[in-house]
Design brief:
six-stranded mixed beta sheet, 6 strands, alpha/beta, single chain
């Protein structure tokens, strides 16, 4: 790749990386909770109050070992989410455990994104969706101000993320994990996987599964604002049933995609989390809310290891 093209690609990737980690549009709304940022327009806080998912982890002997907070990785300005119980957990934690620790090193994330997301000799992006979806994809690229030729060397998963970021109104600067990391600057901050490992999850998806993601972005153009607002409302109110539904519909209904982006990652994280819980320091685990709901969520996995996980929000 010539240096000019590389520079342009890195700029595009860097723009996307500002939102990492972490939004596929509303059909992929679960990814806003799993790994990516979400885009929102005008949203209203839930009528029944703000109550994001917060769990207390108790060892078999009854001692409190830590807390888990379900996050969302991008928010519009002015969305309040800090309840008294969340503030108490923040104050009581000795360390923070997040998906990616150094979210503010955007150049490094962009470099990883560009390296993993670029391959020569790929078919044109329009050919990577069914013919019926090509007009909508072309319109989406035009709306994003993107030249289709710029995607000739961009892998399908990366293109999906880049197109999703176009028009995003939620800011990663307001993302819960980033806000918390800034507050824990004088305490230890540990990570489950880091940017390279997280993006490798996408990079290692089979091409057919990457195309599931891209098709979902295209299909959701019409309804993403409405569905994204519903996602934010579910997150703010801590509606476990609604949040779980986002992890089993749309592209996440595809078993291979769901396993790769959610289930397998939870299993990989469990060992590290269980090891930390055996220590003297109490962690605040702040990960996408999708990782905390349903039978494959971290709370259920911890319970299978003998811990008591109680929702306190």
């Amino acid at each position: 790749m010539c240096s000019d093209n590389a520079s342009k690609l890195k700029k595009n990737f860097a723009s996307t990386a500002v939102g990492l980690t972490r939004d596929l549009r509303a059909v992929l709304a679960a990814f806003a909770l799993v790994t990516l940022t979400a885009c929102y327009s005008q949203v209203d806080e839930p009528d029944d109050g703000t109550n994001p998912l917060l769990y207390e982890i108790t060892a078999p002997d009854g001692s409190v070992e830590g807390w888990m907070l379900g996050t969302i990785h991008a928010l519009p300005d002015g969305v309040g989410w800090r309840t008294d119980k969340i503030e108490s957990a923040i104050a009581g934690a000795d360390m923070l455990l997040v998906e990616i620790a150094d979210l503010e090193d955007r150049d490094a994330i962009a470099d990883v994104f560009a390296e993993l997301g670029t391959t020569h000799g790929l078919p044109p992006l329009l050919q990577r969706v069914p013919p019926s979806e090509r007009p909508a994809l072309r319109d989406l690229m035009e709306d994003a101000g993107a030249d289709p030729s710029n995607f000739s060397a961009i892998e399908t998963w990366a293109a999906a993320l880049m197109l999703t970021r176009a028009g995003s109104l939620g800011s990663a600067e307001n993302g819960v994990d980033l806000v918390l990391a800034r507050e824990f600057k004088d305490r230890d901050i540990l990570e489950f996987e880091g940017a390279a490992a997280q993006l490798t999850v996408f990079d290692e998806l089979a091409e057919e599964d990457q195309r599931v993601l891209l098709s979902a972005v295209v299909q959701d153009v019409e309804t993403h604002e409405e569905d994204s607002a519903a996602l934010l409302s579910a997150w703010l109110s801590g509606d476990e049933e609604a949040l779980e539904s986002f992890t089993t519909t749309g592209a996440m209904a595809d078993k291979e995609v769901r396993d790769a982006l959610l289930v397998n990652r939870n299993r990989a994280w469990l060992g590290k989390l269980a090891g930390l819980l055996k220590g003297e320091e109490k962690p605040l685990v702040a990960v996408g809310a999708a990782h905390l709901v349903g039978p494959d969520g971290l709370p259920k996995m911890l319970e299978a290891r003998g811990y008591t996980v109680r929702r306190v929000e």
